[in-house]
Amino acid sequence: MYDSEPSFDAQALISGLQALSNGDVVSLDSDGTAGPNRYLRLSTGGCSIAIEAGNDVRQRAAYFEALDWPMLHRSFEDAEEVVRAHQAHIHITVETEFDAVANALGVRAMDTSLTRNKLAANVAAALCRLDMPTAVHWKPCEMLYRPAPFLRELETNPVAIFVRVTPFSSNKEVAGVRLIGASTRGAADILGMEAVLEEAPIPVFPAMDLLQSFVSHCHGRGAYLPHLSTYSPQDGEIVLVRHLESTPEIAEAHVSLEIRQSAEAGYDSSDPNVEDIATPRTQATWDGGERRSRPRTAKPFGRRRLT
């Protein structure tokens, strides 16, 4: 993506983030370079945003704790070497000042993950408007639990940005903001992304902006033509993203994007207990009667009786 030193404009990133924020002032605290890497630190809304950009951004060891390395080595011996040899371009971390965010939102300190994730989504959307990565890769949730095939695919098919979006996992409204779930679960640094959206939940509209900019950039380059991607206009509240290898209509691997209305069947927005747009599955209730019933030959007090 970059030849030597990242050349994106910090002021353009600030203006893009300012347009996505709700009137909060975005200030540039520091902007410096160290070797081939560039380091920026922004602050807005009581949060500090640290951006590390470069062609050889080393991954942090904390992310490796999310994977079960001993179990992974049994199925894929070179997994750790593949991960540690992968290079990330841009890594975004958002540090939250809990008291400042809680006072701004009027919520408890434990709810500040909403602001942190919203800020990370806004930064990623602003970044993708400046310099779109070469590919967005969507993987199903099985990758998080069985990463060995995923790492083998990574050797042959490098990825620029990875975002795990699960619209139905946490489809609820917090502080008047409709949210969808997005999580990387340690797969963030494995892929070597250009932007990282960490931890659920992620607001819908920044994710929609990221997807729209991705589709427009791909169409402008001639990639992901309209017949290879399904895209709905921005008239709903929920975006559903699928990375499909093939369908009966489309034989090639493609990205499927759907934006769903919140007024779908099985979803009642007035019910405070409803957190999922899909109707819950009802499983057969087992009362444990066959476990409680004892056989006819059973002794009343076990083998020893009362004698």
Question: Can you walk through the features of this model?
Answer:
- The chain has 307 residues and is an alpha+beta fold.
- The chain has one domain (10-272).
- It is 30% helix and 22% strand.
- It has 10 helices and 12 strands.
- It has a 4-stranded antiparallel beta sheet. Strands 7, 8, 9 and 10 form a 4-stranded antiparallel beta sheet that branches. It has a two-stranded parallel sheet with strand order 5-6.
- A hairpin with a 2-residue loop joins strand 2 and strand 3 (47-57).
- The protein is globular.
- The chain starts with 9 loop residues before the first helix and ends in a 15-residue tail after the last helix.
Main features:
10 helices, globular, four-stranded antiparallel sheet, 12 strands, 307 residues, DUF4261 domain-containing protein, 30% helix, alpha+beta
N- to C-terminal distance:
84 Å
Residue share in helices?
A: 25-40%
Shape: globular
The number of E-state strands comes to: 12
Number of helices: 10
What would you report as the Rg, rounded to the nearest angstrom?
24 Å
Specify the structural class. Answer: alpha+beta
- Number of discrete domains: 1
Strand neighbour order, sheet with most strands: 1-2-3-4
Q: How much of the polypeptide forms β-strand, as a percent range?
A: 15-25%
Major sheet? 4 strands, antiparallel
Spans where pLDDT lies below 50 across 5 or more residues? 58-72, 85-89, 94-102, 107-113, 132-147, 158-202, 223-242, 254-269, 272-281
**Would you list the SSEs in sequence order as H and E?**
HEEEHHEHHEHHEEEEHEHEEH
Question: Quick check: average pLDDT?
Answer: 51
